[in-house]
Specification:
With about 350 residues, the chain is an alpha/beta fold. It contains 12 helices and 14 strands. Keywords: Oxidoreductase.
Length: about 350
């Protein structure tokens, strides 16, 4: 087999903006079916893909890989059906709404002998890649304070399932999953967790603000999200006994995909005064750090390589389950119901 036939479930924001164009950018993947009622959007954005139903995609023997980009409450049930049908499976983050559900899917994928992986695309943000490279190169020395923000200005509540009282809704599961995955990628599982999670905007039904502190011995990792932040501060800070790393601005890949185009060099490394990485060394010397190239297409390159070549998956299902374990611990630390 030299290529894989892919069926995509869902054509909302995740399916149409992220998964469809990234699948189509990988030469060894063929997007042949999309489960959605948005027929005109599919014809325009995914030419050649049949508009159909989730049941039809899962039952189709010609489909090798099922990608699930539906509301969070349906992730585990659809993944279970696809695995039982003998499909390889990609799930948009979060993998499920509970770590127990994720564990069941992992066991099922092993029994079925199929790939199960999760789309944690923020591992390939240019700012995160740059920070990780500086940390691994010893530019910071021993780290003691890590801080990652996902702040934005959305004072008005948008319509949609993410703003309704459903399992897996709210910014903690939506954006917190990204920040937690990045922290676990850098530092592993924490030894303790403190957290505050709340709803600040009038009429908000779900959480729209959180502040999480992950403990790693003497080091602290702070993960923060605010929804009414007109002028955000640094997106990343990392302070150690050898210096400090600061990064403003946000990776431009999502904005490019929202515009209906694949990211280019201009989107990968924007190093103007508002979007720069600064390294401050222990002697007070400051220098700009060239932002590395972001690479969302790396995820589906990795998926194709894992299935066709036997390479390691780009994100292991166990790593995605760890994110859910931390999300559950955060909710407990914040005094929220399980």
């Amino acid at each position: 087999m030299s290529s894989l036939s892919v069926g995509l479930l869902g054509f909302g924001l995740a399916g149409s903006v992220f998964h469809a164009p990234l699948i189509r950018s990988e030469p060894r993947l063929r997007l042949t079916a999309v489960a959605s009622s948005r027929v005109d959007d599919i014809r325009r954005s995914a030419p050649g893909a049949e508009a159909t139903t989730a049941a039809a995609v899962i039952a189709d023997p010609a489909i090798d890989l099922v990608v699930i980009a539906t509301p969070n409450t349906s992730h585990a049930p659809l993944a279970r059906e696809a695995l039982l049908a003998g499909k390889h499976v990609v799930i948009d983050k979060p993998m499920a709404t509970t770590a127990a559900e994720a564990g069941e899917l992992i066991d099922l994928a092993k029994r079925q002998g199929r790939l199960l992986t999760v789309f944690h695309n923020r591992r390939w943000d240019n700012d995160f890649l740059t920070l990780r490279a500086c940390l691994e190169a010893g530019e910071i020395g021993r780290p003691y304070h890590y801080e990652a923000h996902y702040d934005r200005f959305r004072p008005q509540i948008k319509q949609g399932w993410r703003e309704r009282t459903l399992a897996g809704s709210g910014v903690l599961f939506d954006l917190g999953a990204h920040l937690i995955d990045q922290a676990l990628t850098l530092f592993g599982m924490p030894d303790r967790i403190l957290a505050d999670v709340g709803a600040q905007r009038p009429d908000a039904q779900v959480d729209d603000w959180f502040h999480i502190v992950l403990g790693y011995g003497p080091m602290r990792a702070i993960l923060h999200c605010g929804t009414v932040v007109c002028r955000p501060g640094p997106r990343f800070q990392l302070h150690g006994d050898g210096g400090s790393f600061l990064k403003h601005g946000i990776d431009g890949q999502e904005a490019a995909l929202r515009d209906g185009r694949m990211p280019t060099e201009a989107d990968w490394g924007i190093d103007d005064l508002e979007n720069h990485a600064l390294l401050v060394q222990a002697d007070g010397t400051e220098r700009r750090v060239e932002t590395l190239r972001g690479d969302y297409p790396a995820f589906y390159r990795g998926v194709a390589a894992a299935i066709l070549d036997g390479a390691p998956p780009p994100v292991t299902a166990e790593q995605a389950r760890d994110v859910l374990s931390v999300l559950e611990a955060v909710r407990k630390a914040a005094g929220l119901p399980a």
